[in-house]
Amino acid sequence: MNSPARQNPFFEPWTGPFELPPFDRIRTEDFKPAYERAMAEHDAEIAAIVADSTPPNFDNTIAALERAGAAMNRVGAVFWNLTGTESTAELQAIERELAPMLADHFSAIGLNEPLFRRVEAVWKQRDSLALTPEQKRVLDLTYDSFVRSGVLLPPEQKKRYAEIASRLATLGANFAQNI
User: Fold this and answer.
1) 37-77 pLDDT, tens per residue?
2) Quick check: 79 and 22 in contact, CB under 8 A?
3) How far apart are CA 14 and CA 165, in angstroms?
4) What's the distance, CA 45 to chain centroid?
């Protein structure tokens, strides 16, 4: 575990060249607390989007969703890079432990009906908005991602969908570690 004298490198700014991760200071035991904190931050960012009382628009819904999860991306970029190139038994154990947790996290977002309703409201008015081609593409991809994540399914099927996604994440991690 982290001692009080040692700060988790994921919890501090990266000030090296090009803001690269301080690989020399990152330890295996840093990943789980970093992911836990990143998931909590991501949940708070999603909750803020859902709680926004202003009518949904591209900036406060779609762009906000694109910005959400920066901490997840930061931790994941390092973790998946290492598990794919320099994996150890310890990293593989963390990967197996995190796989269903991450799947559950992203399923909760993809099945978040109030969040989807905001996305859908923007999507339904897409032709009347002055969106760039890039913004239209992001909007379409975001809407399609929610639909493919099962947000329109009945509640019992949403639950089953999330269970399957979690199980597939575990099996996928196991498979990747065995090839």
Assistant:
1) 999 999 999 999 999 999 999 999 999 999 999 999 999 99
2) no
3) 33
4) 11
CA distance 30 to 178: 24
At 78, list the tokens. 């390092």
Amino acid at 32: K
How many whole angstroms separate alpha carbon 49 and alpha carbon 151? 17
Given the structure tokens 């009906």, which residue do they identify? 113
> Letter for the amino acid at 163?
E
- HSE at residue 6, side-chain half, CA atoms within 13 A, is 10
Number of H helices, E strands in the chain: 7, 0
Burial environment of residue 59 by CB neighbours within 10 A (0 to 12, 13 to 18, 19 or more): exposed
Token pair 């269970």 in the structure block, residue: 163
Query: 78-131, pLDDT tens digit by residue?
Result: 999 999 888 899 999 999 999 999 999 999 999 999 999 999 999 999 999 999
